[in-house]
């Protein structure tokens, strides 16, 4: 009772824990020479000698990155080293609902949400008359069906 604790680091669950986590990641990227995009705080890039070698994006505590083999080694030995990074996937995988695949011959990357979109989709039946009323407001029943 009546004790003030001075913490050396943020405790999970405090209101500023997310900001402290982001600052830790941002500092680690900076120390690794990986720059933050001036237009998106969650997007980073590595451009040694003005030659883009790779990019990385973060979402909460998820990292996704791509680039040259040199970039991969650099990221794993510097930027991600202090973090307990779990699964690493390459080629084709799902990340935060995005289906990501890379063509091994052209290195072209494709991003899709087809499976996410089509999962559990239900067709809502409308009469021909109702379909023709494109500018009419939804009825309460239609609103309920579209919302679910």
Question: Overview of this structure, please?
Answer:
The protein is 30% helix and 21% strand. The chain is α+β, with helices and mostly antiparallel strands and 148 residues long. The strands form 2 sheets. Strands 1-2-3-4 form a 4-stranded antiparallel β-sheet, covered by helices on one side. The chain has a 3-stranded antiparallel β-sheet with strand order 5-6-7. A hairpin with a 6-residue loop joins strand 1 and strand 2. The longest helix has 15 residues. It is flat. 7% of the residues are buried.
Summarize the structure.
The protein is built from five helices and seven strands. With 148 residues, the chain is of the alpha+beta class.
List the helices and strands and how they pair.
Layout: H1 17-31, E1 35-36, E2 43-46, E3 54-59, E4 62-67, H2 69-79, E5 92-95, E6 98-102, E7 109-112, H3 114-118, H4 128-132, H5 140-147
Antiparallel strand pairs: 1-2, 2-3, 3-4, 5-6, 6-7
Keywords:
about 150 residues, alpha+beta, 5 helices
